[in-house]
Write a structure and sequence with these properties.
Strand content: 15-25%
Strand order of the largest sheet: 2-1-3-4
Distance between the termini: 63 Å
Shape: globular
Structural class: alpha+beta
Largest sheet: 4 strands, mixed
Number of helices: 6
Number of strands: 4
Radius of gyration: 19 Å
Order of helices and strands: HEHEHHHEEH
Length: 145
């Protein structure tokens, strides 16, 4: 019986090793995450998606971040956990519990910069993207425009 437990435990350890190795490696080389949260009814989001987003995706900084999009039909749906990918729901929770989240709610387009598993910066609107978030991304990634 001891041998059987040892074999099962060893098998589980071997099965888990690649996952643990990937998790450790990911922590060491984790890119900053940029989350764009928007909705189909927002004119500002339409401008972001047609003008700013294509420019961002062509810039060198794009390769240095993990870009994620949460895009819903209405602003109210942005505040629903079911609209967010499971691995990003904590971002919504943290935002809704913050003073900014309480005051601004579903204003869009909203950008979240995440580093080391923490929201380090958030901005709302195309002007804030251009004037604040873009320079912040360039600084954080040491990228050129």
């Amino acid at each position: 019986m001891f041998k059987r437990r040892s074999v099962v435990a060893a098998g589980l350890t071997l099965a888990a090793a690649p996952m643990l190795a990937r998790a450790v490696a990911a922590q060491g080389t984790a890119k900053p995450i940029l989350v764009f949260a928007g909705d189909e009814t927002s004119e500002a989001c339409k401008i972001w998606r047609t003008q700013w987003e294509p420019l961002f995706k062509q810039a060198p900084v794009f390769q240095k971040v993990d870009y994620r999009v949460v895009f819903t039909k209405t602003p109210a749906l942005l505040l629903k956990p079911a609209s967010w990918p499971t691995d990003l729901r904590w971002v919504l929770d943290a935002f809704l519990m913050s003073q900014v989240g309480i005051e601004q709610g579903a204003e869009t387009p909203r950008f979240f910069l995440i580093q080391g598993g923490q929201i380090t910066f958030t901005a709302v609107g195309n002007s804030a993207w251009r004037d604040v978030m873009w320079p912040t991304l360039l600084d954080v990634t040491n990228a050129q425009p």
